[in-house]
Design brief:
single chain; mainly alpha; 74% helix
């Protein structure tokens, strides 16, 4: 059994016991209903995201990526990666498989770092919510302050890890189709 599944299973057990103690069966059922609703809403997004990931894998060969990164290496590649990261919708269950799908493509580490920082710092999909719940001025200040961070992180990764690519970070065992094999 995977450690992560065991840890989550224990957390589920504890939370179910607490809910049963605090609010009885009604609270447990309400929590399970909420979980089911979330799962249904997320399922379609997951399926569509994995279809996108699969199509990107077959459309972007290593040769195309090498050519593209040759044209857009350095600061251009870092900025583009950060912006693409910021534009990608969804949470970690969407973009981590997306990143993993490029493992065998040999992308430079700085591209991966810029993408991750862009996704987590820019995340353009949250701007409408942020503007509506906070204030447009606060959102603008946050954007301006954080704007250079993914680019700085990508440049720093480029300087520190010049010769490291994603295929070295995510080694695949022969015959293993399980991307989780690294975590067991």
């Amino acid at each position: 059994m995977k450690k992560s599944l065991l840890v989550i299973g224990v957390a589920v057990g504890v939370l179910l016991i607490v809910a049963l103690t605090v609010g009885g069966e009604k609270l447990v059922l309400k929590g399970l209903e909420s979980a089911w609703d979330t799962a249904i809403q997320s399922a379609l997004l997951l399926v569509v995201s994995f279809i996108v990931i699969g199509q990107i894998q077959v459309l972007l060969s290593k040769e195309k990526l090498d050519k593209w990164l040759g044209e857009y290496s350095g600061i251009k590649g870092i900025v583009i990666s950060a912006v693409v990261g910021g534009l990608l919708p969804g949470g970690p269950y969407i973009y981590y498989p997306f990143i993993r799908s490029f493992a065998d493509k040999g992308l430079p580490l700085y591209v991966l770092i810029a993408f991750l920082f862009g996704k987590n710092i820019y995340d353009f999909t949250r701007i409408p919510l942020e503007v509506s719940l906070l204030d447009p001025k606060i959102t603008l200040i946050r954007i301006l302050i954080t704007l250079p961070i993914p680019i700085i992180a990508g440049l720093l990764a480029q300087q520190l890890f010049k010769n490291i690519s994603t295929d070295r970070l995510f080694p695949r065992e022969e015959g293993s189709g399980d991307p989780d094999h690294l975590h067991s």
